[in-house]
Specification:
With 180 residues, the protein is mainly α. The protein folds into 2 domains: 100 residues, no CATH class; 57 residues. The chain is built from 8 helices and no strands. Helix 1 packs antiparallel against helix 2, helix 2 runs parallel beside helix 4 and helix 7 runs antiparallel to helix 8. It is globular, with a radius of gyration of 17 Å.
Length: 180
């Protein structure tokens, strides 16, 4: 697999321009659907292992909001990809996303919430424990935010609202599927 392609994706996902990041995600999606499918299993695993490392660096060890957003977008692109070892992908991405919350940047939180909701949707019943854990954690944040707001005279801004909205959407969708 092309190291140049990998570096292109990583570099452009780190861009401070949202349009560049979104264009790169589309390119990455096409690359995964077309180029990677024609590669050998060793080439696929090599590309994905290296790319996962870069995603981890972008979301975990970086204070740059744009790099975090690029890493989250890459995760969203790869969540449903049908290439490589898909069995470990759920746990890997769930952990990457979990480490991003709570966050001071609302844009990052909203992207994480969407990615978590998408992760739960794609993995369906495998994600039930994950959803329960994240909902519980979001409610704990709400409790903490409420206590903080009382201490700071009514400043009520919840870090977990976006996450709860995405997980509620997922839960409602699953209930509807089961009752129909």
């Amino acid at each position: 697999m092309s190291t140049a392609a990998l570096l292109h994706f990583v570099t452009n996902l780190k861009s401070r321009h949202e349009s560049v990041r979104l264009k790169t995600v589309k390119e990455l999606s096409l690359y995964v659907k077309n180029e990677l499918r024609e590669a050998t299993p060793d080439e696929i695993n090599s590309f994905l292992d290296e790319f996962y490392h870069h995603i981890f660096e972008m979301v975990k060890f970086n204070n740059d909001v744009n790099e975090k957003k690029g890493g989250i977008l890459a995760i969203m692109c790869l969540i449903g990809a049908d290439v490589g070892d898909t069995t470990s992908r759920f746990g890997r991405f769930a952990n990457y996303l979990r480490k991003l919350l709570p966050c001071n940047d609302v844009g990052v939180m909203e992207l994480v919430a969407k990615a978590m909701g998408y992760l739960a949707m794609v993995y369906g019943s495998k994600a039930s424990e994950y959803v329960q854990f994240e909902v519980k954690r979001a409610f704990e944040w709400l409790q903490d935010d409420k206590a903080d707001a009382q201490l700071h005279h009514g400043q009520e801004e919840s870090h977990s609202n976006p996450l709860l909205c995405e997980l509620v959407d997922y839960t409602v969708e699953q209930v509807c599927k089961q009752t129909m």
